[in-house]
Design brief:
Elements: H1 3-17, H2 22-31, H3 39-46, H4 54-64, H5 68-73, H6 79-109
Helix pairs in contact: 1-3, 2-3
Length: about 110
């Protein structure tokens, strides 16, 4: 796998973590000053068919709330990864609390 493909995979992962379609990301890039940034641009980048410019990578990293190094190297967990982990942990804690309350109620009725 070449670096364009790796960056493309990271772009797709970050975009999907935010729940954005390729068209939505293109629109956001246009709104931040990247004229003529299209869904096809995003698609070709994600497939590794085009090499993004460094300024483009900086803009994307900022949009995703990560550093350029994290975006290019993929080293650190992204903000969305950390959010998802926290969300899952919260759900598990809530499920345990509900189970505990239900078992306490059953014991009281018992």
């Amino acid at each position: 796998m070449n670096s364009s493909q790796e960056i493309g995979q990271r772009l797709q992962k970050e975009r999907e973590n935010f729940g954005w379609s390729q068209s939505e990301l293109a629109r956001l890039m246009n709104e931040s000053g990247w004229s003529k940034y299209t869904q096809m641009t995003v698609s070709r980048t994600e497939r590794g068919e085009r090499e993004p410019r460094i300024r483009e990578l900086v803009a994307l990293a900022r949009m995703f709330g990560i550093t350029l190094d994290e975006f290019i190297e993929g080293g650190a967990a992204t903000a969305t990864d950390l959010y998802a982990e926290g969300y899952r942990a919260g759900i598990l804690a809530a499920q345990k609390s509900i189970a505990s309350l239900l078992s306490s109620e059953v014991a009281l009725r018992g």
